[in-house]
Design goal:
mainly beta, two-stranded antiparallel ribbon, 2 strands, elongated
């Protein structure tokens, strides 16, 4: 397929991958 191009200024790993839910249902990794 070739090389995947990324947008300039954006990180290689999306921030959404670090967002999750804690043990009590709170959102973690958002900020």
């Amino acid at each position: 397929c070739g090389e995947i191009m990324t947008m300039p200024g954006l990180p290689r790993v999306p921030s959404a991958e670090t967002i999750g839910l804690g043990a009590e249902g709170e959102v973690v990794g958002l900020f």
